[in-house]
Amino acid sequence: MLAKYGLLIFLSCLIPTCHAENWIRVQDQFGHPIENAVVSQLIPATAVNTATTEDSPIMDQINKQFNPHVLIINKGQQVSFPNSDDIRHHVYSFSDTKPFEIKLYKGRKGQPIAFDKSGIVVLGCNIHDQMIGYIYVAENENAALTDKNGMVNLTHPATTINVWHPRLSAQSNLRETFELEPLEKADYSTITLTLSTPKAIGKKKKFKPKKFGVDKD
Amino acid sequence: MRLTSLNYQIIKLVFGLLFVTATAILITVWTKNTEHAQAQLQRDLLISENVFQQLLSSRETQLFNSANILVSDFGFKQAIASQDKGTIDSVLVNHGERIGANTMAVISLNGNIIATTNPAISDSTFSTQTQLLNETINNGGMTSLMVFDNKLYQVIMLTVDAPTPIALTLLGFEIDQALLNQLKSITQMETTVSVEIANSAPLVISTLDHARQIDALANVNKDISWFEMNLFKKSTLVSQQFILSKQENKVIYVTLTENMSKIFSEFNQLQVSITLIALISILLALIFALILSRQLSKPLSLLSKVASKISGGEYQTVAIADIKLTEVKKLSDAFDVMQTNIQARESKIIHLAHHDLLTQLSNRFDIQQRLNDKLAQPQSFQVVGINIKDFRSLNDVFGYHNGDFCLQELAKRIEKLGGLAARLTGGELLWLPEHDQSLTALNDIKHQLEHPIVTPDVTIKPKLALGILSCPTDASSAEVLFKRMNIVLDESQLTKSMVLEYHPLLEERYVRKLAVVTELKQVLATENDELALFYQPKLTIADNKILNVEALIRWQNKQLGFVSPEEFITLAEQSGIIEQVTLWVINQAIDDAIKLREAGITICIAINLSAQDILNKQLLPYINDRLTEHKLPVTTLSFEITESDILNDPLLAIAQMSNYRNHGFSLAIDDFGTGYSSLEYLKNLPVSALKVDKSFVLNLAEQTSDQSIVQTVIKLAHEFNLSVIAEGVENEASLALLKQWQCEFAQGYFISRPIPLSDLLIWHQAHTQHQWI
Question: Rounded to two decimals, what is the model's pTM?
Fold first, then answer.
């Protein structure tokens, strides 16, 4: 997997006009690094590496989890949903970007699904509620994922960037735009996101009867 | 202190004790029961509250599980995601029926209503509640109590996740009376849920009817009181309220209500039982108290009657039937014993009152009564008084125990004679013979009684004097009898006849003696001139001169007339006033001697002294003082003493007489020849003269025997160097004989009668030169 990311980045760096480094660190309101945040900048349509669009990205299912957790594709690309588990999955999406459903299947490669619209696609499994994955469909964007240290290299200088993360909103469809300050001392720019507390998706809903009964304390 | 009967006291005690006990128990039970009920109620209410909460909570969980199944349904998610309103509506109805939810709705994440089964829920219900929505979305759901269309719902709101939230589902379960009834069946408490909404009428759901709801809500958190509930018929409902939920615009209260009458009903039964038991106990106790007090008071009042009879001297057997109490029996027995003892003691006292302690004969009191009784009878009877002569000296000499023994022995002897015997006093006994005894017989009896009495120490020969009275002739009452018996006994001893019958003369004499002594005392005390000294001259035969006179006392009493010196001097000696008489005589003689000396007559006055006077040691110094006072020589006075007086106590008399002679007084023996003249004494008597008794001299001229005696006496006297005075010289022949026999002095009517001082002065003048022979 990492090799493939690395390949993606490497391929991006192969773009002749782009040999510079632009490191950005994404952290939450508590200063902790945020992994799997998508940092992107708008680029002209001509600059989009069309070569990559020809590939067929894969959203695998391993150990009842989507793998990768967040997949960045360009608009128009087709994504394959192989099932590496020896159990069946029922992958679906009710996102406006691309509602689809792959009924119970096991092991087969399946027909890749094309994503013709840019935006966020939230993936779920009807059998396994805890399975959740995201496909970021980019259009005229230079987009990259933060690593586990919250670091990402856009490779191009940028002043305006967009940042997306599932926990930015309840429906995981919100992106935020940031203006980058020129770097003076630091080696990277720092972006701070305000995230909601992680919800135990798929697990039994936890709530306390806030309005019910008298608070004893 | 006010007296109350035993019955009343016992009943009061028993009733009081039981009443206090029962009341104390009742009060304790009341208090404890109320406390217990309070505690139980508090506990019940607390438990009920917890149960209520637990029930709602578990219902909530149950509702949540049901709701969760709905929102997890893929078809439902799909329908929402695809905005398929028809499908959504049908799913809501279908699921609502399946899980029994009264109200269902699907709400968009921004609060708009997508679908609902309850027309009261609209977009405006949640559009303003952004925070509530956000929290619900973040938490995945929430529960609350909400009011729609004036109905209270337990509401569950859950997110529809696909897999991120795409909408909210609302499920409402109405809290209605049916639910509360169900809760009541578990908690056993009346339950009222009231919702107070701002600017709106409160919503009340209750297991109670309307009227009791108001009552229950009015009695929230009040203390329970048995008195108020039972006595004042106040509400029996007690409520506990707690807040179930408090929101911005509404407060939901839960009121748990217990009907106390349920708790108190058992308690009331207990009260009734205790009261009943107390009343029955009091009744039973009163009955037992009555029985007890009857068993106690009846014999007691009987005993008190017996006691008052005993106090009146009426003795009888204490016989109380039906005694059931040991104490009363003991008391009754004690009464018997007491009565017997009192009776015994009384008879002993009566015996003592009537008998002499020493001799066991009747005492004076007893014999007085008996005598009076006998005197009341017509029969005449004889009374013999027996007096132990000199009983006092007998006691003095032999001791009282021997005196007593003597008396007891005599008493025994008299008792053997039969009749009635009594001891009057000291050694004086009284005997009433059964039959009258003659004087001879009485003399025999006297001898019998005088047999020597042998005491353990000594043998005593009692000398008795008997006096005899014949009643009722001699005495008509016991008092008179005692008096006359005294007189006759005195007389019997004085006259030494020893057995003497009473004669009225005896009493006359006695009365006369009494009168003489009384008058004499009076005269001596008042110093009137009833007493007088007469002087009889003594002729000194050899010189033919009058140098001596004898002073003779004379008493002319205005009542008794002339009283002879022999009579009153004897009585004065017996009654102990002779000393006063003697002093009077001495003083009078000294006064007269002074007058005689003033008249130029030097004469010696001879004064008679009795034995008592001689033995009186104060007399001689007194005489000396008087003479010294008047500067008179001792020869002014001389003294004459009767021979028999000296013989009573010769040694002391001689010693005293020696004192007189040593002081220069001359002494003469008076009445010489009448006593048992002892030559032995005569030898030692310190006297200078003998006075021959006039009985020898009166007829001296005619009686030759008298002449022999007188001549012998004169010779004898001269042998002892004593001069002789012849008394009772009544004629010249006698005087001639006396002169012939060389008698020194002559005294008698031939020379002169006794004459008062004034006559003496004249007589002396007239006879200075008189030639007597």
Answer: 0.47
